[in-house]
Every structure is written in C-alpha cells, then in structure tokens.
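Take a minute with the sequence and fold tokens given here and flag any structure token that looks odd. Thanks in advance.
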Amino acid sequence: MENKNILKGVLFVGLGASFYGMLATFVKVAYDQGYTTAEVTTAQFAIGILILGIVNLIMMNKKSLPKVEKIDKKRLVLAGSSLGFTSLFYYLSVQYINVSIAIVLLMQTVWISILVESILNKQIPSAKKLIAMVLVLFGTVLATNLINQEVELNPKGLFWGFLAACSFTSTMFSSNKIANYLPPYKKSLWMLYGGAIVVSLFLFFSQLGPFYSEGLFSLYRNFSDDVAGIHSFNFSIFYVWGLPLAVFGTVLPPILLNKGFPHTGLGLGSIVSSLELPVSVTMAFIVLQEKVLLIQWTGIAIIIFAIIISNVSFGKKKIGV
C-alpha cells in the first residue's frame, strides 16, 4: 500500500510541475502583449482564489469538510506567501540575468530540498537520490543550452534567482508538512491567500503606488531604474489571460502538489518537480515555435531518466526510494 501511495504522489507532483511548465508559455505571450509582472500575477492569484472559493463552496454542500484549525490558518497563509515570492523573485532575477541562468538557479530547489529533508529527518540522502539530483542539475544545464551561451553573471540576478529557489523549496515543504488533514483544494485556497497578499503589495509598490504618488515614485527609483511598467492597471488581463494563468498557475498545481507531496516526501518530490523544465521547453517549441537544439533535447531526456531511476527500484518488486 505504501509503494502505491508513493507512485500516486509521484504522479500528482509530476502533473502539478507539468502545469507550471505550461504556464511559462502563457506568461511569455502575455508579456509580449504588454502586460506587466504585477498585472499577470494579480490576475493569476485573484481568479485562482475565485475558482478555488467556488470549488470549496460546492464541496461544502456535498460533504462535511474538516474545519481549519486556527493555528493552521496562520501557518498556511504564511507558507502560501512563498507562492507569491517564488514568482516575484524569479521575474526580478530575469531583469538582470539571462533567462537560462535564472532557470538553472530555480532548479537549485532539487539539492536544497534534499538537504532540508536530510536535516529534518537527520539522515543522509540515499545514493539514488544523490545520483538523481546530479543528473537533474546536469540535464538542466543542457536543456537550457547554458554551455553554448555567453552569459553575464550579475550579482543582483544571482541573488534574486537563488531566493526564488529557496522560496519554491518553502512551497514544497508546506505542501509536504502543513495541515495534511485538509482536502487539497481547501489547503490550497488558504495558501493562495498568503500569495495574494505578497502579490498585492508588489502591485502597489511596483506599479500603482509610483504611478499615482510622486513620493512613492521617488522611493521606487531608489531600487529600480525600470519605469516602463509604472502605469494604471490594465484590467483586460483578467479576461484575456486570467483564466489560463489561474488554472495552470494557482489552481491545479497547488492542489496536485498538496495532494502528492505528503506521499513522496520533500526530496523525491523536488526531483519529480523538475519535470517543469522539459515541459516548459517543449511547450515553447510547439506553441511559440522556439528553436530547440539537440543538446537541449538531450538535457530533457536526462531529466526524465533521473526521475525514472529515482522512482524505480531495479531488481525489486516495489516503487519508491
């Protein structure tokens, strides 16, 4: 039964990561149409909360849902802030460094998660996890074509990119440990509240505040020279991109991760979540018709192979690590 639960968890985490990978293509198109990071993330979280709110109301009428304990409400909202921070830190990093470098930094989540899990469990990671971790990171370098690019390592970009990886690790830890007695859709809703607070603050301080207040504009200029995104809010983002951004960014992934991580654990789950990268590259190839080189497909194959070996015990009739 335990091995079946691990396999189930792997499937849920893999699907959740894959949806996140699809999201990158929608976000890129939205940016090309002139929408800002603040507008994209605001629509993503606002509509996501609306959808999950409706789901919770429907399920409440069908069956009695467990009440969220008071202490867990605070924990989930606080933990959910990492959902907002991950997006914001990543988008800040790409202002200073190449997108490929930013993705490599985000994939540091793999070893950070394994390290955190080993500290929490007070045990050394298995050889299989360590091998899978190295393969994922190597495959990431190939899949982003990092080797063939001349890149500038801006310290600010490295800082924000590494914070994005730490924040994403926090999201996975929350999915693994906090309030697992709740149905995933209810737990995800409370986590979205935390992310929405972060995104709302970012919207105010990076776009609306500086646009309507000279004082806040002067304050903003102390931190960034990019003023292109300072203007009134473009509400068309809600009906043009709001639904796909929410479904693939704040509805399905949190539910699936919350459902899968309690079964996989933090270390194995982080390895499986690296599926986000190959899905993102494949979507860009199919939808955006971006050129993908052989070395990138090789990297994708290595990542998938790493996920397979981390879940299959060769020579034994069981699945798991």
Summary: The two ends are 15 Å apart (CA to CA). The chain is about 75% helix and 0% strand. The chain has a mean pLDDT of 82. Residues 201 and 262 are 31 Å apart (CA to CA).
